Amino acid sequence: MENAFDGVNHDILLLKLEFVGIVSKAYTLIEVYLNDRYREVLLDHRHYNTISSDWAKVKHNIPQDLIPGPLFFLFYINDLPKIIADVSQPVLFGDKTGIHISKPSPTEFINDFNKLLVNISDWFKINLGSLNFDKTYFVQFRTQSSH
Questions:
Q1: Between 20 and 30 A from 77 (CA), which of 20, 47, 112, 146?
Q2: By C-alpha distance, which of 84, 77, 71 is closest to 16?
Q3: Could you give the number of structural domains in the chain?
Q4: CB-based burial of residue 134 (10 Å sphere; 0-12 exposed, 13-18 middle, 19+ buried)?
């Protein structure tokens, strides 16, 4: 994701939490925690006056330095492995995701890789996210054919 914790949409996260059974008082507590946050931007320069934006409601972003943040992020991406499981086995660790595809032939590999990209692209569209290409790497390991 672009910046993983900044890309979390509150409405989508709340839907996913409700889907896994977090309801009632727990849901309300999380909803208040997410929805009652505001921020402003301050531009401070030593030769000029400080300029500030208006306060705006935070609709995306979960604090990553607090204990609930990483947990909320995992709930947010919890459905990603299911979407790509038919072609790969993902490994999730916090806001990092590793994807492994193992195929005996280059044609099968390319077909599965293309399908994987379509599935991931669809997931990002549905979840209003984007892939950070500066932090995305592709590594292909192959064995040398014996003659």
A1: 112
A2: 77
A3: 1
A4: exposed
